[in-house]
Amino acid sequence: KRDDTERVLVFTKTKADADELSFQLRDEGIDSDAIHGDKQQRIRQKILRNFRNGQFPVLIATDVAARGIDVPG
């Protein structure tokens, strides 16, 4: 588990932008993942759980996929 004191939630307009930004960040050594409507619900839930638990510091989401996200802190 990583130190979860600093987490960043980034919103993008499109699913493609979310995936591309996550890829670019990982390519630069920044752990991240993306959630959007093209990912299955169980995958989105796993990604959110991992983000909440501090497994990676940056979550990229489309505005639609981000509805209902509750991250304490």
TrEMBL record:
Which residue numbers delimit the Helicase C-terminal domain?
1-73
- Enumerate the Gene3D superfamilies for this protein: P-loop containing nucleotide triphosphate hydrolases
Which SUPFAM superfamilies did the record assign?
P-loop containing nucleoside triphosphate hydrolases
Q: Which CDD domains match?
A: SF2_C_DEAD
Keywords in UniProt for this one? Answer: ATP-binding, Helicase, Hydrolase, Nucleotide-binding
GO MF annotations in UniProt:
ATP binding; hydrolase activity; RNA helicase activity
A GO term from the CC aspect: cytosol
Q: Which InterPro entries match?
A: DEAD_box_RNA_helicase, Helicase_C-like, P-loop_NTPase
- Please tell me whether the keyword Transcription is annotated for this protein: no
User: What family is it from?
Assistant: Belongs to the DEAD box helicase family.
Per its record, how is this protein called by name?
Answer: DEAD/DEAH box helicase
